[in-house]
Amino acid sequence: MPEEEKEEVENAPQRGFSFQKVMMLATFILIGFMVFIYLNQSGMLSNLSAGSSEKEESSVFYQFEPHFLVNLADTQVLRYLKVVLGVEVSNQRVAQELANRQVEVRDALIMVMSAKQSEDLATTEGKEQLKEEIKDTLNRLVGEQGEVKEVYFVDFVMQ
């Protein structure tokens, strides 16, 4: 009888996990983790999770060409400001509107910038205030087409 019991134990199906199954499971988990890290680092994961809602709310960037060169309102010394502006707009229609009305837009922005004094623009707060004034001016010009979300100084030289 003891021999029969040994045969039954040897022929009985194994219960639990074998070493091979555990290693295979660990390998799949490791590969999955590596794929997740790669997708997350490359930005593809955020694109997948955002889906089509991101496309509807995506911004468009528009850069004014050529640069703006204006005399500042300083009375004691002749100073000028050279600025390259970029703007973030809510949709392509706003960018097209800015391009179509370039003469009017450039005139309005030159008037805003040339009213400033160099001491106003020497501080970060002064530059931020100028950005806000430019944004307000542009939003008045584009009207119902959309909005200018942000103004960026691509180049800013004051002399």
How do the helices and strands line up, and which of them pair or pack?
Layout: H1 2-11, H2 19-42, H3 44-50, H4 52-56, E1 60-63, E2 68-71, E3 80-89, H5 92-100, H6 102-114, H7 118-121, H8 124-142, E4 148-158
Antiparallel strand pairs: 1-3, 2-3, 3-4
Structure at a glance:
This protein is α+β, with helices and mostly antiparallel strands. Helix content is 57%, strand content 18%.
What's the architecture of the largest domain, going by CATH? Answer: 2-Layer Sandwich
CATH topology call of the largest domain: Tetrahydropterin Synthase, Chain A
Look at the structure and give the mean pLDDT. Answer: 85
Tell me the series of helices and strands, N- to C-terminal.
Answer: HHHHEEEHHHHE
Reported for the largest beta sheet, the result is: 4 strands, antiparallel
Question: Which residue ranges are poorly predicted, with pLDDT under 50 across at least 5 consecutive positions?
Answer: 52-56
Total strand segments: 4
Helix content: 55-70%
How many helical stretches? 8
What's the overall geometry?
Answer: elongated
CATH superfamily of the largest domain: Band 7 domain
Helix- and strand-based class?
A: alpha+beta
